[in-house]
Amino acid sequence: MVAKQEDVNATDVSIPEELPVLPSGGNILYPSIMVPVATGEPRVLKLIDDAVADNKLIALFAERDQEAAGHANLYRIGTAAHIARMLKWPDGSIQLYLRGLARIELKEITQEDPYLRGKVEVKEEVPEESAELAALSRNLLTLFQKVVQLAPNLPQEVGAAVLNIPKPSNLTDFIASHLNITTEESQELLETISVAERIRKLTGYINRELELLELGSKIQTQIKGEMDKAQREYYLREQLKAIQKELGEGDEHTTELNELREKIEEAQLPEEAMKEAERELDRLSRMHPAAAEYSVARTYIDWLISLPWAKSTEDHLDIAEAKEVLDTDHYDLEKVKDRVLDYLAVHKLRHDMKGPILCFVGPPGTGKTSVGHSVARALGREFVRMSLGGMHDEAEIRGHRRTYVGALPGRIIQGIRRAESNNPVFMLDEIDKVGADFRGDPASALLEVLDPEQNYAFVDHYLDVPFDFSKVMFITTANMLDPIPPALKDRMEVIELVGYTEQEKLQIARNYLVPRQLVENGLTADKLELSDEVLLRIISDYTREAGVRNLEREIGSVCRKVARKVAEGISEIPQVMPDKLHDYLGPDRFRYELAGEADEVGVATGMAWTIAGGDVLFVEASLIPGKGDFVITGKLGDVMQESARATLTYVRSRASDFGIDADFYKKKDVHIHVPAGAIPKDGPSAGVTMAVALVSAATKLPVSKDIAMTGEITLRGKVLPVGGIKEKVLAAHRAGIKSVILPKENEKDLEEIPQQVKDELEFFFVERIDDAIMKTIHPSPSRKTKAPKKSIP
Ligand SMILES: Nc1ncnc2c1ncn2[C@@H]1O[C@H](COP(=O)(O)OP(=O)(O)OP(=O)(O)O)[C@@H](O)[C@H]1O
Ligand SMILES: [Mg+2]
Residue 117's closest CA among 45, 31, 59? Predict the structure, then answer.
């Protein structure tokens, strides 16, 4: 058996004087309310058993302190209840349904065991009926309806049920039992016999409850409101469109936006760029086209969609063809060409290769930029070039943030856009001329661009989304290696292009420069023929450079003069003859000072390494009566000045060996000067030259002017190796020098020097300064050297 059902139908019962008393803890039962109660307590079971057997009536009293026991703890006012239904569970516990009958007062306890019994007295309500009561109860009803609407835990049926309670007294009890109030408050309501009074109290509680509920619901609405915002915006935007359409301004704008949207989809943007583009487009759609902000957002989107995010050109990977292209464009430059073909070969084998960064270093006009161009042609890639010379501002590389007025992406991104492909050959010219100042350091931004470990996600400040540079082949150029920041140098593979010899220049002129200048000046080979002799004369008398830029310019001048004659209709154009060159180019620009000049006392010929490749220079030393001052002039750097002092010390220490008065430096002022005083010079490599000039000045014996020398010296007179041998030797050769004195340890550097030059020069390798002095200073002051031959074959 699961449960037993009791039959109850007593409704209007008279309440006896004495009843079993059931303490109900904190629970309060109001008259006319039915509540379920479950219990398994033996005392209570006995009480219920007896009550059911008797008249099914019990008295319920709440307790003041739920921890305390004893009947003194019971409230004096309680409720008489009828056991409407009882279910017995198999475990012995029971479930009761109690219906409240009337308010009662506990007069005295008559029995304590096995359960409480007591004398009770019914507290009769005084029947009230007034307009005020009706109004109060109607108000109460309305308030309660609101509570039902707001309270999440009250079912809507409660709201309906309350409408069907006609008696104000029952109404208050019903509402009180559904309100969220404390035991004390409930008890107070129970004890309030006057219905009007009860309604007033209840109205107070209900208002308090309502306030709490309304606050809660306000918070709720706020949270929900935020979630709905996106949806709302959508509707508003739709409305805006409708309004704009009404005003007649929507259409053009919408078309523009639709076009942009299409372009964005076509541009194959990577995810991040796509997001940014869509965000900007969204902003755009809400702006008036005349707003200043509009064009900013529009420009930004234009930039995004115009970049070749996914556009690459296909590489020509045929090595033989590439070699042909490189050879057609440039004479010699074998090292560069080889390196490029190697790159191509590796690239052919593995496609994901991270491009090396080549750095072409060499004097001006040696073909660095133009060979980069032809590398692009050989690979079948686009070519972009950008000069870094004089760049001080990091933002030029990295761009300005969009918040700046007139902001643009950096020059690298601009170059990529110009290339219209994401794998061009990108030439960064003059990387040795970037500077750093308060606007930041472009070199550090360059580092990020060039570093294969980072450049697959280069973030330009303007774009603010990463762009992949890993497929770009970067080539940098520089005139000098030293000024390049070490961190940059480290990431590049340096390939040196040294200057050309006269013979090489002749080849270049004949095969490349002349044909090009003819075309540029609208001439053909039958109108103008430039013999080798003429070309060599231009090379030696009109240019002095490591490269061929001026040579090309001079050839261009000759071409223009001839073109003019052709244009003037002169039919018989005379051949350009070597000795008639001044008619075309004016007087010779460079006469070798050496030619026909006598050797001098105190002047030695040195070799220097300059931006232009190399040059010869003269060091002058002079001893004049004085009190022992040492003067150095000619804009010499610290290292060179120190080197001069060391030289003097050495000469003093060896004075007697050279046959010089040991006190010469006390009675005379010593002056060392290096002409071309406006050009800064530095480095230790003029040590040998200064020593020779000084000894010559002190001994009054002349120095051979056609022997050029270089080398650092120590205080003990040892000659140490120096750099730039190749450039220096080529420069000496250009200048018509016959013999060259080099430090012994530099002998190995001769390997790099063209055979023709080696054949035409005499080399002396020295370990001690004395050897150099012996080679250059003549024993007899009367001897004259013959003029050096010019190297016209
Ligand atoms: N080996 C060569 N063969 C054919 N032409 C050459 C060669 N070297 C240089 N040229 C020509 O010389 C001219 C100058 O070269 P380019 O502008 O590349 O010099 P550069 O090394 O970049 O000089 P700079 O350091 O001043 O930038 C170009 O017209 C180029 O074609
Ligand atoms: Mg260049």
Answer: 59
Going by pLDDT thresholds of 50, 70 and 90, the confidence category of residue 638 is confident
Q: For residue 469, count other CB atoms closer than 10 A to its CB.
A: 24
Q: Are 116 and 19 in contact (CB under 8 A)?
A: no
Bridge partners of 708? 605, 740
Q: pLDDT tens digit string along 486-540?
A: 888 888 889 888 888 888 899 999 999 999 999 998 888 888 888 888 898 888 7
Alpha carbon distance 772, 66 (integer Å): 119
Q: Which atom of ligand 1 is found nearest the CA of 513?
A: 5
pLDDT band (50, 70, 90) for residue 445: confident
**124: Cα separation from own chain's centroid:** 87
Burial of 51 (0-12, 13-18, 19+ CB in 10 A): buried
**For 558-572, what is the mean pLDDT?**
85
Look up 348 and say whether it is catalytic.
Answer: no
3-state helix, strand, coil in the chain (%, to 5): 45, 15, 35
Contact 549, 364 (CB under 8 A): yes
Q: Are 183 and 96 in contact (CB under 8 A)?
A: no
Which of 177, 186, 685, 739 is labelled catalytic?
685
108-159: pLDDT as tens digits = 999 888 899 999 999 988 777 788 888 888 898 999 988 888 888 888 888 8
pLDDT of 105 higher than 90: yes
Q: Whose CA is nearest to atom 4 of ligand 1?
A: 330
In this structure, which amino acid lies at residue 349? L
Which ligand 1 atom lies nearest to the CA of residue 363? Answer: 25
Q: In this structure, which residue's CA is closest to atom 6 in ligand 1?
A: 367
329 Cα nearest atom in ligand 1: 4
Atom of ligand 1 nearest to the CA of 373: 18
Nearest CA to ligand 1 atom 19: 365
* pLDDT at res. 3: 30
How remote is the CA of residue 746 from the centroid of ligand 2, in Å? 30
Instruction: Please state, in angstroms and rounded to a whole number, the distance separating the CA atoms of residues 37 and 94.
Output: 8
Query: Strand 707-709 to strand 739-743: parallel, antiparallel, or no bridges (unpaired)?
Result: parallel
Ligand 2 geometric centre to CA of 366 (Å): 8
Cut 0.70: pTM above it = no
In terms of Cβ atoms closer than 10 Å to its own Cβ (0-12, 13-18, 19+), residue 571 is: exposed
The catalytic position among 726, 728, 738, 791 is 728
Ligand 1 pocket list (CB less than 6 A): 330-333, 362, 364-370, 429, 477, 479, 508, 512, 547-549, 552
The rounded Å distance from CA 313 to ligand 1 centre is 26
What's the CA-to-centroid distance between 652 and ligand 2, angstroms?
A: 47
pLDDT digits (tens, 9 = 90+) for 656-707: 888 888 787 788 899 999 886 556 677 888 899 999 999 999 888 999 888 9
Query: What is the tens place of the pLDDT at every residue in 759-782?
Result: 999 999 999 999 999 888 877 544
Residue 464 C-alpha to ligand 2 middle, in angstroms?
32
pLDDT average, residue stretch 22-31: 90
Reported residue count of the chain is 793
Radius of gyration of the chain (CA): 54
* One-letter amino acid for residue 785 of the chain: T
Task: Based on the residue annotation, tell me whether 685 is a catalytic residue of this protein.
Answer: yes
Question: Atom 3 of ligand 1 has which residue's CA nearest to it?
Answer: 330
Residue nearest to atom 15 of ligand 1 (CA): 367
